[in-house]
Amino acid sequence: MPDTVSEARVVFTEEFRRTVRRVSYVLVTLAVPAILVSVFVGVVAVRAFVEREEDDEPKLTGVVNLSADLRLPTGNFSGMVALSTREQGTEALLDGSVSELYVIPIDYLRIGSLEWLTASEGAFAAFDPGPGGESRARITNLLRLALAEQELPRDILARAMVPATFERTRIGDDGQPVTDEDDFNFAPLLLSFGGSFMLLFAISMGGSSLVQSVAEEKETRMIEVLLTSAKPMSIMAGKVLAIGLAGLIQMTVWLGAFVIVVPLIFDIFPDGPAFDIDPILVIWVVFFFVGGYFISGVLLSGLGAISTGVKEANQLSMMVILPLASPFWFVTAVVGNPEGAMATGLSLFPLTAPITMLIRIAISEPPVVQIVASGLILVGSGVVLLWLSARVFRAALLLYGQRMSFGQVWTALRQSGA
Amino acid sequence: MIDALNLENIVKTYGDRRVVDGVSLDVHEGEIFGLVGPNGSGKTTTIRMALDIIRPDSGIVALFGKPPSRDSLARIGYLPEERGLFQRSKVTQILTYLGRLKRMDSSSALARADELLTRVGLYEHRDKKVSALSRGMSQLVQFAGALIHKPELIILDEPFSGLDPLNVQLMKEMIREQRESGASIIFSTHQMTDVEELCERVLLINDGNVLLYGNLAEIKHARGTHNVRIVADREPASVPGVVKAESTNGYYEYAVSETSRPEQVIRAFLDADIHVERYEVVLPTLNEIFIDEVSRARHSE
């Protein structure tokens, strides 16, 4: 056993070194943070653009005065229209006759705050951080004029210099304010689906390099030299762990970028969707990512060994990637009934477990016992497959230019010496 | 003295075909042993069983007097027949990796890699990727990889194939150096001239069966005192006991029958009063023995 560990460590070190020094690995690892930062920069740019548009475009502003103590001056005020009730105002907002609405509350002279209402529809609705410069100037001038015309105490008049603060309210289709409770928390969904796609992406990249590595060693006969120096189990374990660690580092970089940058993006939306990251969810995402990577890596190593060459190995790798991605084919059934037989069954089958469980955790609260069972099946079957693959590995690698028959696989499994 | 390798009646069957059929051999400490046979004769399978890469169906394999183990395998250097290296890795990295797999620490492996690369004339290529090397250079790197851990038993499967004469000469020198430093070397090939030049003992294998095994000189003497070469002005009208005669520019070669003696040939020249410049009993080349034995085996099937 110490020999096996020592040999696996040497193989692991070499495979890890070769993997992380590949240009493709570095580029792919940095791609996700780069994309997220680009999205962040893009969102900031769009927000700046929307603010400028608001300032540039003349639009009609509705004003509802509910304060009995404040009389708005009569006469025409450019771009503003007086509406008598809040309901009338929200109707005007919804039918588009006004683009924004100020409601002067009944106790305005006491609190000094206005309500600023916008419709929640529109591609950039959530980017509206507050009244635009021109709109703000118009309502400010109107209030200053109204305050100046009335005989008011000195302290209230002082407010004329800064006549109001704004409470923003978005109006939904039903004319009712959209509250925080109505907002969907995107974090679990983004994290789980993001984790699933990352797993597929990482396996497609890292897994293909693993299968190619094994197939190349077989094709070049380098494996014969390795087999005189290390047990097949050590070679396989070293390879799988190295590619796994490279994947984990990739995942950490991606997840780190996600956790740092995505909340910043959501912060730009003043009343945008909630984005609260649950640390437990992060742990599950990492666990199922690593588990999925491990079992896929073991199977891909085995396929690399039984293939006739690098080209065929790449084709055979689809035998792992397709089942791994298959939960996406059944996503409607899984999302529609996350506790149903289909979702539960896919959660307990090793290759489909990682992505199915991540989807279920995102949209519902599966029983902890099922999550744990799914994880145990995933890791347990990975270990068993590693042991079985190591037995086939030696025999398969020596069949140059040939694929193993079932009989040969059976013979290899019965022989000792993995 | 413990032999580096003992094979006792090993058998390996693939499907219906017995690839190795009862091969036995001993490789002594400090000798260069030739494993000779045509393509597909079972040489590589025999080597793989010796290296514990595959297990024999029956028979016994002993490395340094014991069944193969991780410890004994760590004392072996192996150059497989068809060679390849990680194309995207640097020369030094590969050699260091191979050394570490053979239980060397990184710094020792690196120092030994530099030493071997200097010996094979590739030191200035140490930081190049394998893909940037020629095929011959790549083979030398792999040969260095087989020697990186100063093995006590070196197994070379067709080591000279694809190499230019200068590199073949270099590799032969290094093989002799290894023997002088006490290593045992198994040299598998179908190039008979190389075996004659390097090996003291040989095993000739065909279709998995041993045809000849033993000391090369003894094998030649045992079956080789029936060829006579004479340099003379002319040849006599008849030479008794000769079964085959060839002549070229004053060189006369005769194969005498097994019941005759070579001296009868020179006597025929002298009796005919012909001046003889040179007379020698020629031992058969290994190539001749090889062709003879393999042909005989194939005809007997």
Oligomeric nature of the chains: heterodimer
Strand order of the largest sheet of chain A: 2-1-3-4-5
Largest sheet of chain A: 5 strands, mixed
Helix content of chain A: 55-70%
Give the distance, in angstroms, between the N- and C-terminal Cα atoms of chain A.
12 Å
Calculate the mean pLDDT score of chain A and round it.
78
Helix count of chain A equals 17
Mass-distribution shape of chain B: globular
- Outline the low-pLDDT stretches of chain A: none
Largest sheet, spatial ordering of strands of chain B: 5-6-7-3-8-9
| Overall number of strands of chain B | 13
Strand content of chain A: 5-15%
Structure explained in plain terms:
Chain A is α/β, with parallel strands linked by helices. Chain A has 17 helices and 5 strands. In chain A, strands 2-1-3-4-5 form a 5-stranded mixed sheet, sandwiched between helices. In chain A, helix 7 runs antiparallel to helix 9. Chain A is elongated, with a radius of gyration of 31 Å. The model of chain A has no long low-confidence stretch (mean pLDDT 78). Chain B is an alpha/beta fold and 301 residues long. Helices cover 35% and strands 29% of the residues of chain B. Chain B contains 10 helices and 13 strands. Chain B has helices at residues 43-50, 70-73, 91-101, 106-119, 135-147, 165-180, 192-198, 216-223, 263-271, 286-300, and strands at residues 5-14, 17-27, 32-36, 58-63, 76-79, 153-157, 184-189, 201-206, 209-215, 227-232, 242-248, 251-256, 276-282. In chain B, the strands form 3 sheets. In chain B, strands 5-6-7-3-8-9 form a 6-stranded mixed sheet, with helices on both faces. In chain B, strands 11-12-10-13 form a 4-stranded antiparallel sheet, with helices on one face. In chain B, a hairpin with a 2-residue loop joins strand 11 (242-248) and strand 12. Chain B is globular and about 75 Å long. The chains are: A alpha/beta (418), B alpha/beta (301). Chains A and B meet through helix 1 and helix 8 of A and helix 3 and helix 5 of B.
